[in-house]
Amino acid sequence: MKKQKPLWIIPIMYMIILLLIPAVILLPFSSKDQKTSEQTEDTQVKEKTQENAELTVSVFRDQSETVEELELETYVAGVVASEMPASFEEEALKAQALAARTYVTRLIAAGGAEGLPEKADITDTTAHQVFKNDKELKTLWSDEFEWKKEKIVEAVSATKGEVLTYDGKPITASFFSTSNGWTENAKDYWTEDIPYLQSVESSWDESVAPGFLHEVTIPVSEFEEKLGITLSKGEIGTVMERTPGHRVKTVDIAGKTFTGREIRENLGLRSTDFHWTQQGDSILIQTKGYGHGVGMSQYGANGMAKEGKTYGEIVAHYFKGVEIASVETILPSLLAQR
């Protein structure tokens, strides 16, 4: 005969089973939750790493023929210090910082400028934008280094990470010294029609730029040699057409047609707004403004700042239809190229 279990054991076993069932049911879900939590932490770590990653610029130093690696904001400060007088208004310096940062960001996004050694993004010359490091600036500024660098760093820091975009992409933020009262359409100097680089009035330059008007005298023989022409007696050429920016578009000299840009570059003139007169064996040439004329006029920006305009208003005037965005919005794709 089989011995029966005591009746009090049955309720205890039942209670144990009831306690174990929730743990068994929740076990798979607990493992899943743990895995999801770990994935979330990994994602957060990656996002934080990406957020803290600093975009660097590889600058080809023309004199030493070496490549200098710099953090983006350090590079921008070196460009602003080299391209715009530190004595300019703070809002003008901010506008310059924005243009410099955007210019190099666009080049990096394009894989760097063409014709440079491997790993270099940009040169330190006027071929792109001038850059000098602190050692070079100390030599240049001497006793004025501290206040000038501090002022520029403040302007750069105030715009940290900001770039100019058009249709969500960094623009070609070109700039130049002094306008002739207007900026130039990109298509009238570079032949490419760029929607945000259109001719706008820049009336501030004449009153604030010391080199607004400039004169140079060239011997007739040198004039003829550089243009590959022979002048007839009393003939100095005829301007055939001017651009919307009031610069020379085409000119006819001795039966040969030149663009204003060809004349400027061949004769080494300050701008394409020029006229000349012959005085004996020489040609007297007068120019207005200084530079190619496309994009932001630096002296115009300073004139706007003197009137109380903000750097946002300055860049909006010279670059039509652009927006100020954060470089972080395009940082992942830029870092992926490094």
Strand order, largest beta sheet: 2-1-3
Tell how many strands the DSSP assignment holds: 14
Helicity, as a percent range: 40-55%
Q: What sequence of helices (H) and strands (E) makes up the elements?
A: HEEHHEHHEEEHHEHEEEHEEEHHEH
Q: Outline the biggest β-sheet.
A: 3 strands, mixed
Backbone structural class: alpha+beta
What would you call the quaternary organization? single chain
DSSP helix count? 12
Q: Span between N and C termini?
A: 85 Å
| Fraction of residues in β-strands | 15-25%
What is the number of domains?
Answer: 2
Shape: globular
* Radius of gyration over C-alpha positions, nearest whole angstrom: 32 Å
- Mean pLDDT across all amino acids: 86
Low-confidence stretches: 21-52
Protein name: Sporulation stage II protein D amidase enhancer LytB N-terminal domain-containing protein
Domain Sporulation stage II protein D amidase enhancer LytB N-terminal: 63-166
GO biological process, one term: sporulation resulting in formation of a cellular spore
Pfam families: SpoIID
Describe it:
The structure is a single chain. The chain contains 12 helices and 14 strands. The model is unreliable at 21-52 (pLDDT under 50). The N and C termini lie far apart (85 Å). It has helices at 9-52, 72-83, 90-109, 134-141, 145-158, 186-189, 205-208, 220-227, 260-267, 298-306, 311-318, 331-337, and strands at 56-61, 66-71, 122-123, 162-166, 169-170, 175-176, 213-219, 238-242, 248-253, 256-259, 274-279, 282-288, 296-297, 323-326. Helix content is 43%, strand content 19%. It folds into 2 domains: 56-207 and 293-337, no CATH class; 213-288, no CATH class. Helix 3 packs antiparallel against helix 10 (298-306). A 3-stranded mixed sheet has the order 2-1-3. Strands 5-4-14 form a 3-stranded antiparallel sheet. With 338 residues, it is an alpha+beta fold.
